[in-house]
Amino acid sequence: MTNPLNSLYTELVIEHDKRPQNAGLREPFDAEVHHVNPTCGDEITLRLHLDRDGEDLRIRDISYDAIGCAMSRASASILTDLLIGRTTEEALPVIDHLEAVMGARGTMEPDEDLIGDAVALMGAAKFPARIKCVLMSWKAYQAALVETQALGER
């Protein structure tokens, strides 16, 4: 396998772009957000559906409609694959680590055990404009989570 830190379009990125997981907006959903990357024109509409699981909130579904580069579409697909079924608390270290590695711009080794297939996105860390492409769907998930939690507090 190609070292993901040295390649922008790994086989896994291309595979997720060609055969995206969980693409297409579905119901039911608790929150819907729309994010745009004005730098390159990538867009995502993301829906989040949570269920109460005892004391935890479990991610039951994340669906999306993404327009843009292969990197942003693959990132959305990988996000859904990694997070659906986890609790929101279990998702936090995944997101935090992904953001830290991307922010380190290729100087930090990713924890593949933690971020799974998202390691394939790490080649973008060396290209500041591409970091936004990768992180857009993750930021949309976080915004949807905040929106869902705000609705729950009413």
Structure report:
The protein is an alpha+beta fold. The chain is 44% helix and 20% strand. It contains five helices and three strands, in the order H-E-E-E-H-H-H-H. The protein has helices at 11-18, 70-83, 88-103, 112-115, 128-152; strands spanning 31-37, 42-53, 56-67. A three-stranded antiparallel beta sheet has the order 1-2-3. A hairpin with a 4-residue loop joins strand 1 (31-37) and strand 2.
Architecture blueprint of SSEs:
Layout: H1 11-18, E1 31-37, E2 42-53, E3 56-67, H2 70-83, H3 88-103, H4 112-115, H5 128-152
Antiparallel strand pairs: 1-2, 2-3
GO molecular function: iron ion binding; iron-sulfur cluster binding
InterPro entries: NIF_FeS_clus_asmbl_NifU_N
GO biological process, one term: iron-sulfur cluster assembly
User: What is the mean predicted local confidence, pLDDT?
Assistant: 90
User: Which sequence of strands runs across the widest sheet?
Assistant: 1-2-3
Q: Please tell me how large the radius of gyration is.
A: 15 Å
The CATH topology turns out to be Sufe protein. Chain: A
Helix count from the secondary structure assignment: 5
What string gives the helices and strands in order?
Answer: HEEEHHHH
How does the helix and strand content classify structurally?
Answer: alpha+beta
**What amount of the residues lies in strands?**
15-25%
Gap between N and C termini: 49 Å
Question: How would the global form be characterised?
Answer: globular
The count of strands amounts to: 3
Classified by CATH, the class is: Alpha Beta
The figure for the number of domains is 1
Query: Can you name the CATH architecture?
Result: Alpha-Beta Complex
Low-confidence stretches are none
- Strand count, sense and closure of the main sheet? 3 strands, antiparallel
* Range of helix content: 40-55%
Protein name: Nitrogen fixation protein NifU
Organism: Brachybacterium muris UCD-AY4
InterPro entries: NIF_FeS_clus_asmbl_NifU_N
GO molecular function: iron ion binding; iron-sulfur cluster binding
